[in-house]
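Submission sheet (multi-component)
Chains listed below:
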Amino acid sequence: MVCPLPCASLCMLSSFNIEQRRSSHISSKPISESPKTELFRKFNSPFELKQVHTLVIKTGMPISDLPLSRVASVCARTPSFPYAQQIFQQVDQPETFIWNSCLRDFAESDSPFDAILLFYQIRRYNVLPDSFTCSFVLKACVRLQYLFHGRIIHAFVEKLGLQLNLVLLNVIVHLYASCGRINDAILLFDKMPQRDVVTWNTMITQLVKMGDIDSAYKMFVQMPDRNLRSWTAMIAGFVQCGKPKEGIALFTKMEEVGLKPNEVTVVAVLAACADVGALDLGRRIHDYSDKRGFTRNIHISNTLIDMYIKCGCLKASCDVFKNMKERTIVSWSAMIQGLAIHGKAKEALELFSEMIYTGMKPNGVTFLGLLNACSHMGLINEGRSFFASMTKDYGIIPCIEHYGCMVDLLSRAGLLEEAHELIEQMPIKPNAAVWGALLGGCKVHKNIEMAEIAMRHLHELDPLNDGYYVVLSNIYSEAKKWEDAAKVRKMMRNRGLKRQLVGVQLLLAGREKLALVFGLINTPPGETIRIFKNLRVCEDCHASFKLISSIVKREIVVRDRNRFHCFKDGYCSCKDYW
DNA sequence: CTAGGGTTAG
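Outcome: structure written.
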């Protein structure tokens, strides 16, 4: 992160002459419409500003009609500050007020750095700053994660005697915490003479961002008053920290207290439902959202799509998607990924074409969905061509997850050498997921040599994960290499990994079937049965489910770690490729 | 009403 000294930022203002010369011929360029109107809106240099100013004076237009932020932004970057000051002093508003509005615009713009520049100019030319001035420039510091400037402004706040202003202190707490200085934030929090619900909410959110959900919850319990935002922040916090069950439990408590969820709460709760597969609650929230008109909110529809997908209701997610009047890349990517994990590769690819046709630009996540689709259905050539196209046609640099998908795609298809080559030549250091994908392929295609290569890396990258040892041991066992299998088990024991290799699989297999029987007894005939598990479905269960689905004439949807299996009339949506 | 806190796809 660039964090120039304040004096350095002032030095940057010396580009005045270059800018003036570069832009002086803009006005002589042929412009459609009225060139003067164009100039009035878009002037970019002090030179053009003077032209506009002249225009204002000539036409007798009130000076307050000038786009003041434009004036300020031109002058923030050049030594023409006094010129803008002159103009502002003729406007029928306090000068500080106008500079503050400009600061606010800059702080919220795409280049918040302008606010920092302008702030130092304001200081230099002795405009009297107030608490609003500080709050806007602090906001820019937060957005830019400029701790250095933030500390300067903090000191400045004290110098101005504003150290008791609660709003400012809240922003400063936010600044320190969001810049990773949680201890500074806590220090300030502890010595604040008073705190309000915003102070507490800020701490909770930032603690969650640091991954410290326990401290966040302690504060949530400890705080004197909680508003809807406090509850929402805490629910979202649980979801973000991978504790969706706790999130749902807290939501239930919130309802008991009598608070009604708003749009943001709904997004967080739906995300929790998606993670644990709480379809009933998800449907209830969907109803509620419809009643309150929340479904027009794109965030909510996007999250609904995701929730239905992860709960195994592809149809319901399609309905939400179709009913959306506007869609973002998140909507499309979620839907493509949804089709992919439900084994509808063809539909996923078609949806992608449709998306491109509407002019929506894909991003990295979109391609993850596409590669997933290809991977689950063994579409090797399509996968290769998407992987090439993402960079070539859309300028998206593949990240580790994309490589993981490609390795998965090639390995599943038995192209273990090609997968290994891809890993060897990828520009990022491969992680455990990448080598794990290769190992998975080695199991399916019974390649012991390659499995050993993958294992050497996994051993190093993720030594405490017993799952890989289990896979390797199984590969040896299947090849009847009992001694090697025993060696792996010994290795696990030496590392203190105690999982019972054979017992685990049997137990899980039993559980899946038990879940199915339970579902058959407890649901009306004909209704879809949904089973969730946190590992991969084993081959034995997969075969049984196909059979049972045709006998009882019911759909059985199983969510495993990676995807969905929809069993119907003796067939599975994965077409046995998984 | 010139300022501060909570949200989605992998």
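Remark: The first helix of chain A runs from residue 6 to 11.
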